[in-house]
Design goal:
Blueprint (H helix, E strand, L loop, with lengths): L7 H23 L10 H7 L32 E5 L10 E5 L2 E12 L3 E9 L2 E9 L5 E12 L3 E8 L4 E12 L4
Antiparallel strand pairs: 1-8, 2-7, 3-6, 3-8, 4-5, 4-7
Amino acid sequence: MQPRRPSPATIIASLALFFSLGGTAIAAHHYLITSTGQIKPSVLKKLTGNTGATGAAGATGLRGVEGPRGKEGPEGARSDVWQAGTGKAESTAPLWVSVPAGSYLVVAKTVVAGGEAVVACYVKGGDEEDRASGQISETVKELTLTNVETTVLSTPGTIELECKGQADHFWDAKLTATKVGAIH
């Protein structure tokens, strides 16, 4: 017996079924929602209900076993700080501190006001010098100069803050020298 040949209606129906299922698969893949960012915020708000009441706190868990004590760290180098000036109006440059031999981080601040000139403040200590400068003018009536330097003194000595220029005032000055273990 020979298999029957499909009728034209069966072929057309099969093709229609094939294309409809394929189109649905393509549409599902293209329009599939994978994150809330794809949903309009007003719709998302309607989908999300109000936050419910907070539930009771759970029981506290058991405390874990205490670990072994850590190894004692090395003793660090001691830091000492020398300071001159208060950083307030009555404190004016020049300032200086006498320090023992060692390595230092030096920070100085001075407010310069009045006049019309280039002004500069210098921090000097050991073989190092740091210069901070600016210009006082009609538009810039006051400015803060900050000096930062590192220096090494092989013998006891002095670290100084000195300011120069045709300004009316050098005030709010403060000089801080912090002894550090080493400068690398």
